[in-house]
# Entry
Amino acid sequence: MIEIDTSKVYNGTRAGAIAHGALLYATDNPCKNGHNTARYTKTGACVECQNDATRTWRKRASALKGETGIKRTDWHMEAARWRMVAEQANTDRSRIQREVDSLQRQLERARKRIDELESELAFAPSRRNDDL
# Structure
């Protein structure tokens, strides 16, 4: 939990705190959860709400660690592996789709050529055994 150094809290509006380069600012308006503590200048989030959210996240993270057996430090590596697998799958899908498109174009050209040859054959004079 963050300890607030009141000497570094700007008293006034968020815009004023941004102008003064303050990390935190204080306002008379309570947050949506009723806390009347300082807020972060960058996000406008209440410090107490942010602390609550951090505690909740840590509880969920430790519960997930217990369920999966994965350490929190390993999550980033695991997430990177899954992203690589997903990227490879997308690359493979794209490559396969390009091959399918190419084969479909070849098939269409072959069908057109067959139609051309059939039309030539239809208009060609027929040879009879008499003519030989």
